[in-house]
């Protein structure tokens, strides 16, 4: 890693031709990023995709202007220099990471790209003592600022408030389908299904360590089972529920959390203290489930609370009776 970093050129060591070549390659990279965003969003968010198509065209236009300037000043051969060759140059997020970005995150990423480029060129212009280089860097900063204004006008032209609202609603719906629903199912399963074995073991043995081991095993096992089941039963292509691995991760992790929540108190050696805390944790878990149902699934809070608390109470009672018997 050290050798890779040490091989980078400092921006202050670049010639005017190299700075111009760097600007050309950066404009080309940014246009490709915007086209990738547009391709990624076109099916679900066509208006935002149109914005990014327009921004890519803007970058193409600036790149062509820079190439014309380079041809006039330095000739046809453009040096091969990219932002990763220059120490301290503003970085771009790898395009393959955009699969994990939300709609708002992609919009914010695009704004950060333009603002970061402008700020970099302004700082570079202030650091140089050469008048021609200062002018060139200042022109590049102004171009990046112009990109931001162009982006705003493109968004107004292609993305009305109604269209943006619809896309935001679609993004929220996708978030619920991919993360909230599987996570809620996992939390309910982990919180409710582990009540019986944990409390049955607790009342049967009065041994907190044994109860913890049973609870931890039940929680981890249930988490793995729920995660793989969620990921395997629906690939998300037809249902539109999103990546199976994201849903499996949400379901599996929340299942484990739901079970471990009332297993961890049994790390306390004193039985009744551990059991009391575990009961309080169960109460918090059940009300959290009811809140999530009300907040994201639009289930009336009282109905959600009644369903969850009643179900949890029945499972707890079953575990206590079996263990106490």
What does the model show?
- There is one protein chain.
- With 325 residues, the protein is mainly α.
- It folds into 2 domains: 2-159, Ferritin, core subunit, four-helix bundle (Ferritin, Up-down Bundle), CATH 1.20.1260.10; 166-324, no CATH class.
- It is 77% helix and 1% strand.
- The chain contains 11 helices and 2 strands.
- It has helices at 2-6, 16-41, 46-74, 103-127, 131-158, 161-193, 195-205, 208-233, 244-261, 271-296, 301-324; strands at 9-10, 86-87.
- It has a two-stranded parallel sheet with strand order 1-2.
- Helix 4 packs antiparallel against helix 5 (131-158).
- The longest helix is centred in the middle third of the chain and has 33 residues, at 161-193.
- The relative contact order is 0.09.
- Mean pLDDT is 77; it is low at 1-5.
- GO terms for molecular function: manganese ion transmembrane transporter activity; metal ion binding; oxidoreductase activity.
- Its main location: membrane.
- Keywords: Membrane, Transmembrane, Transmembrane helix.
- It is a multi-pass membrane protein.
- This is Rubrerythrin.
Number of domains: 2
Number of helices: 11
Radius of gyration: 28 Å
Major sheet attributes: 2 strands, parallel
Q: What characteristic shape results from the CA principal axes?
A: elongated
Feature tags:
325 residues, 77% helix, mainly alpha, 11 helices, two-stranded parallel ribbon, 2 strands, Ferritin, single chain
Element layout with pairings:
Blueprint: H1 2-6, E1 9-10, H2 16-41, H3 46-74, E2 86-87, H4 103-127, H5 131-158, H6 161-193, H7 195-205, H8 208-233, H9 244-261, H10 271-296, H11 301-324
Parallel strand pairs: 1-2
């Amino acid at each position: 890693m050290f050798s890779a970093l040490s091989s980078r050129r400092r921006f202050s060591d670049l010639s005017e031709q190299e700075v111009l070549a760097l600007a050309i390659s950066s404009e080309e990279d940014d246009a490709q990023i915007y086209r990738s965003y547009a391709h990624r969003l076109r099916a679900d968010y066509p208006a935002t995709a149109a914005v990014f198509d327009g921004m890519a065209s803007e970058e193409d236009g600036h790149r062509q202007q820079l190439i014309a300037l380079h041809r006039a000043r330095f000739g046809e051969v453009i040096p091969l220099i990219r932002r990763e060759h220059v120490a301290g140059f503003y970085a771009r997020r790898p395009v393959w990471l955009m699969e994990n970005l939300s709609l708002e995150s992609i919009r914010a990423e695009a704004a950060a790209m333009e603002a970061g480029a402008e700020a970099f060129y302004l700082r570079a212009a202030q650091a140089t003592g050469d008048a021609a280089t200062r002018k060139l860097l200042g022109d590049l900063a102004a171009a990046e600022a112009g990109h931001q204004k162009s982006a705003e006008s493109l968004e107004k032209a292609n993305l009305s408030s109604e269209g943006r609202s619809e896309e935001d609603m679609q993004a929220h719906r996708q978030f619920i389908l991919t993360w909230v629903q599987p996570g809620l199912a996992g939390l309910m399963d982990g919180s409710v299904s582990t009540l019986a074995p944990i409390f049955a073991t607790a009342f049967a043995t009065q041994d907190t360590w044994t109860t913890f081991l049973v609870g931890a095993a039940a929680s981890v096992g249930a988490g793995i089972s729920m995660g793989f089941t969620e990921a395997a039963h629906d690939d998300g292509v037809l249902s539109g529920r999103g990546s199976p691995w994201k849903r499996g991760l949400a379901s599996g992790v929340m299942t484990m959390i739901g079970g471990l929540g009332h297993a961890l108190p049994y790390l306390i050696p004193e039985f009744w203290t551990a059991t009391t805390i575990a009961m309080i944790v169960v109460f918090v878990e059940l009300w959290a489930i009811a809140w999530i149902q009300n907040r994201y699934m639009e289930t009336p809070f009282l109905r959600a609370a009644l369903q969850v608390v009643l179900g949890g109470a029945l499972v707890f009672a079953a575990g206590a009776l079996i263990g106490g018997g």
